[in-house]
Amino acid sequence: MLEKIIEWSVNNRFLVMIGVVAVIAAGFAAIRTTPVDAIPDLSDIQVIVLTDYPGQGPNVVEDQVTYPLTTAMLSVPYAKVVRGYSFFGFSLVYIIFEDGTDLYWARSRVLEYLNFAAGRLPRGVTPQLGPDATGVGWIYEYVLDGGDRYDLQQLRSIQDWYLRYELASVPGVSEVASVGGFVKQYQVEVDPLKLQAYGVPLQKVRTAIQRSNNDVGGRLIEMGETEYMVRGLGYITSVEDLERVPLGLGPNGAPLLLKDVADIHVGPELRRGIAEWNGQGETVGGIVVIRFGENALKVIDAVKSRMEELKKGLPEGVEIHAAYDRSGLIKRAVATLKEKLLEETIVVALVIIVFLLHLRSAFVAIFTLPLGVLLAFTVMRAQGLNANIMSLGGIAIAIGAMVDAVVVMIENAHKHMEREPDRRGRDRWELILKASKEVGPALFYSLLIITISFIPVFSLQQQEGRLFKPLAFTKTYAMASSALLAITVLPVLMGMFIKGKIRPENKHPLSKALIRIYRPAIQFVLRRRLATILVAILVVLATLFPLSKIGSEFMPPLDEGDLLYMPTTLPGISVTKAKELLQQTDRIIASFPEVQSVFGKIGRADTATDPAPLTMIETTITLKHQ
Q1: Considering the entire predicted model, what is its pTM?
Q2: Rounded to an integer, what distance in angstroms lies between the CA atom of residue 154 and that of residue 164?
């Protein structure tokens, strides 16, 4: 069967080369469209439910919100773990699904069960789904610097009402979260003594504010052949509007206004998160969260391009600085592996040139190895695998075995041409066909055995499986591609490139020197078979002791170029003290000459993907380029 495939390929080499062109085109298209990231996404398939319950303590939130939601989510199909967290003023419920569950199917199921659970929650409390992102979705962070001209409230307004919406419209962005600064509020501080003096209950004040903050619509009136819409404008737009809210009549019949019983002013909303920049003081930041399954590198580039456009619309004196950018890590990781792939290809070509002294034969290897890689990329893209250090590492590992078929096939063709150097034209193609049939099937099966050797890796589950399965997949695809090319394309390439004078092995100076060393050595070990086996056993046993002393790590060391410093404080720390501690920490870190920038965050950002309490510091340290 395999010999017939080899013979068909040689006899129909034009069709084979058309197939090669198609593989090259598909491979380059796959490379351009394959999502790129630094490492595989090790996070679980999860759906987050965020529920705000303003002003309530964790115990009340737990009893009235978190517990009803977690018990309802236990029945969601394929949910393996449900975790609930109760904080001051809000609740987070995480539903972890089994591996292989489609994220958007899981979100729709959770939404169905939320409709049922909503009736068990307090009035006015509405749960909402978090962004369709994963646990490693924070791909880009930035800060706003307004100098001395803009305060934190103004910067937060720019972030919330300008940058956030524009960046959220970038394809692939799931959410843009704000952190730090002050959210503007109209605050009404009632005087209980005045309320008592006027006989006004607190609920009446609340109802009056709600009723006064409203627009109403009327009908149409027609004047001068034109119709006009009748509207009552009542939305509150200033402190003065609030001050004039009527509460009723005073003791002397005069109107009783809100300003008579309360102090009304603009102030900040209660803060549960603070951002700091380079130890210089508080700032306002934004966090770009990528949508599940998107190309991280492409999304980051699109975000940065949109941000350059948005800078033109910023107020004079406001600048945007990048606090964290994952694209640098992605590009460095991919560039390193590309460099290693190129080095391996060059080494293989040099080995063939040195040992065979035939430049054309090296072109067979130079052409076949990238073709196998392109074929592997085509299958990767069809499966939806990301290009990361693990998946590309699988291809790099496979190249060492992929080249075996090339070297053996070329060496065997050289042997046949040494014995029959006068063959030309059709006779030479018959000689190439004979040489290919002689070793091609054996090479195909040997590569196939190596291909299936990674099958046990596919049995890994959870984080281990997510980390190593991309490597196993790409290694398998690359080896399978090599086995296929060995019986189809490789014989055709050998017939096209292996021409001219072939130097016999016994006239090659390097081969002669190696043979003179090899023959006495092989004869020595064959005469002392028992001693050779015993030495081999002793060598294996000698490795057991150092093997027992070698440590183990889940992941290999990775020089990201960035650091994340995450200390915790004592429970109950105040916002003022937390701000002071964060700035002191960032100032110390920024004083090191190796540090380029420091972005500190204590507490949580305004996103369901951040459950950090006010006691947790997260400092992103960007190092200078080495």
Answers
A1: 0.80
A2: 14
